[in-house]
Amino acid sequence: MRGEVIRRVRGGIAALVLVGLVVAPWVVDDYTTAILSRTLALALVGVSVALLTGVAGMPTLGQTAPYAAGAYACAVVGSRVSDVGVVQLAVAAAAGALLAALTVPLVVHARGVIVLMITLAIGELVVIVLGRWRSVTGGTDGLAGIPAVRPFWGLPALADDQARYLYALVVVATLVGAVLVLLRTRAGLVLRAGRDDETRLRASGHRVALHLSGAHIAAGAIAGAAGSLLVVAQQYISPADFGFDTSALLLLGVVIGGTASVGGALVGAALVIAVRDWLFGVLPGHAPLVLGALFVATVYLLPTGVNRARGRLRPPGAPALQPDQPALHEQATVAELHR
Amino acid sequence: MTGLLEAQEISVRYGSLAALDGVDLRIHDGQRHALIGPNGAGKTTLLNVLGGSTRPQRGTVRFDGRDVGRLGPAARARRGINRIHQRPAVFPTLTATENVVVAALPRVVPRRRWWPGGRRRAAQRTAGPLLDQMGLTAVAAVPAGHLAHGQRRQLEIAMALAGRPRLLLLDEPAAGLSAIEVGRLVELLQALPRAVAVLLVEHRLDLVYALSDTVTVLRDGQTLAAGTPDEIRTSPLVRQAYADGVA
Ligand SMILES: Nc1ncnc2c1ncn2[C@@H]1O[C@H](COP(=O)(O)OP(=O)(O)O)[C@@H](O)[C@H]1O
Ligand SMILES: [Mg+2]
């Protein structure tokens, strides 16, 4: 009964949020609309972070790497080859997946905090390469003047911020839907099992490294696609869009959202990015400090995220947790950081 | 007749301690073999070596005529060696059904090979009857982390069977089970297809005698005796070992 009520309430809130997202660009000014589009792109990267951190159990600070690969691939293709959105999305996703595939050997055999350090290093390396490889990336100046995207062959180019925002919203909704479907398949089930107990998964005959590689590449593709949305939103990109602070904020957002939840990751990442953008306005120069303090407070006060209520709900007739069993929601969020 | 499993001269050392010291073991197709011995004799270590989670310093393991010594636990499970652990190992956030589905996936045979979701559905079909056999139908939708100890153990047995084993390694499967659950376990093991070989580590000798055709007695990492249950029951050596050891 209670589960039913909560499901309804959640469904209602989700519907309201969706309506709000659709009408938002007509309520706020153009500048804010452009910022919202960028926030959508970052929230999608947040989903890829949640996929790795919460579902696959590989906490990551490096999703800005495939995000950047996708963005730059999209910017280059958009300037020189095609202004068609689906083409740019496919190229960006492929670039993100390729970068993720190249880094697979570095991450799949590492665990916990080590993964955080390795992915952090990968992210920083990518930023350095972007700054140096001037002929393609424009160096620290970045790439500007990327032509407006047309979503599909034959459609008009998206000339204003509202249209670009809606394009981003449709793409994010489609990709998030695809991730949710994927998580319901065998692949999602096996990933969750591996997060619970990798040794047990191996004992059942599963190729764990293969599953993790697949998840890593899929998350790279999603982040890459998000990169193409950033290009659409800003029509300008530079290495500053992909710094360590962005990775840290996304991880923070995903932790707030409850690591394993895709919806939570979207909301958490969007919230954190919005707070950052707002803080930069009201506290010039101090925003990183405030965010750092927020990060520490979140990790200590709220280790289980917004979704903790879920873990508390026991299925009907189920006995209480055994005293020797760590609480489930703790296993789902804190455990993977220490694996 | 050659063995399904042949382990020769297995030695495992932990520092100065010889957990296993030149142990031989041979199990035929469908054989029900028990491994007994006092605590610390090396029984779990031997299962670890056969299952692939511990590499012995010396010795060879052949399964189905092939050297599997270099294979890890996953590859051995895919060849048909499945085990349950002394401490039940299940996926705590997955439901009982999902646990069995995950365990079934690597060896499941879908009806239509390239149909999307075919493997998942085939695995799902095997889960229901197995949970039923283990008396877990009522808790099929409960996350395994919420199950009582005995239920988790039975779930792990269902998972091992879902992997369509040719050799089942059971490490004290009756430990922590109620009398009813032990009864169900014995029935289940007796009803296993004759082709499935079982290596059973068990302290309770009544279960050993009920379930096995042959018995090996380990002590301090060495084979103390081997034979039929009747031979072992009457062996003075074994009585002595058990008097010195636990029971
Ligand atoms: N990982 C390990 N590290 C050190 N010693 C171990 C390890 N595993 C087992 N041992 C030791 O090896 C011996 C055999 O252990 P085990 O195989 O668990 O015995 P049994 O299952 O027969 O009770 C024991 O003395 C045990 O303390
Ligand atoms: Mg033992």
UniProtKB/TrEMBL annotation, chain A:
- A Pfam family matched in the record: BPD_transp_2
Predominant subcellular localization, coarse grouping: membrane
Chain ranges passing through the membrane: 12-28, 40-58, 87-108, 113-133, 165-187, 208-237, 249-275, 287-306
- Please verify whether the record's keywords include Transmembrane: yes
Keywords, ordered alphabetically: Cell membrane, Membrane, Transmembrane, Transmembrane helix
Where is the protein localized?
Cell membrane
Highest taxon above the source species: Bacteria
Q: May I have one GO cellular component term?
A: plasma membrane
- Membrane topology, from the record: Multi-pass membrane protein
Gene Ontology MF term list: branched-chain amino acid transmembrane transporter activity
List the PANTHER family hit by this protein, alphabetically: ABC TRANSPORTER ATP-BINDING PROTEIN (PTHR30482:SF17), HIGH-AFFINITY BRANCHED-CHAIN AMINO ACID TRANSPORT SYSTEM PERMEASE (PTHR30482)
Q: What is this protein called?
A: Branched-chain amino acid ABC transporter permease
What lineage is on file? Answer: Bacteria, Bacillati, Actinomycetota, Actinomycetes, Micromonosporales
TrEMBL record, chain B:
Q: Name one GO molecular function term.
A: L-valine transmembrane transporter activity
Q: Name one GO biological process term.
A: L-valine import across plasma membrane
> CDD domains in the record, alphabetically?
ABC_Mj1267_LivG_branched
Q: Which Pfam families match?
A: ABC_tran
Q: Which UniProt keywords apply?
A: ATP-binding, Nucleotide-binding, Transport
PROSITE patterns linked to this entry: ABC_TRANSPORTER_2 (PS50893)
Instruction: Quote a single Gene Ontology cellular component term.
Output: plasma membrane
So which domain of life are we looking at?
Bacteria
Among SUPFAM superfamilies, the record links this protein to:
P-loop containing nucleoside triphosphate hydrolases (SSF52540)
Every copy of the ABC transporter domain together lies at: 5-245
Protein name according to UniProt: ABC transporter ATP-binding protein
